[in-house]
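S.,

Sequence below, as promised.
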Amino acid sequence: MAGDRLDELSMAMRVAREFREGMYVNLGVGIPTLASSFVPPGMEVILHSENGMLGFGPLVEDAAHADIFLINASVQPVSPRPGMCFFAHEESFAMIRGGRIDITVLGALEVAENGDLANYQLPGKVCGSFGGGQDLAFCARKVIAVMTHRTKDDRPKIVQRVTLPLTAPRAVDRVVTDIAVIDVTPAGLLLREYVPGWTPEEIQALTAAPLRIADDLQPMTLA
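The prediction came back faster than expected:
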């Protein structure tokens, strides 16, 4: 029997384990923005938001202390940090397009086995919203997609070919889901980590693309 699944906060905690000292990290709308609260203590990670903010801190939990003008990509209030700065959209996107972002963490609707990303238009919607996702997917040095492994109606999100409108081709490097961490490699998808209680066979059964098993496959840890 399969084990428990990670909730959104737990997925964000796992994403934060990807951060390293001195990195410039962009956090996209949804689960990714939650990761700002899980940067390891003492680690200097410079968080970037495409709406024109650099160097902000964790989410503000108490609404009484929120600054309505200090918000992330998900319109959540964030805390100030020494040295943070603000700028216009064109400067923000110049940073992105100039290759200054070490990691971008993006939500996803589908990821294909070759790294194709679909994340801007929900099924059944007439149109979607790119925001900064297309620029980030093309220009960041590493792209991490974070999402539930299946949709609410139990369709796979990790597929052989995307069926939703494409955001960027061959963009995703790593996928973090509520049951696994999977890398996109030239040889296909590689299962790196599993949530305790799940087996590789159970994860494969919920994935619509073949998975190879890493030689150093290990249980996922959050801290």
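The mean pLDDT is 94.

Coffee later?
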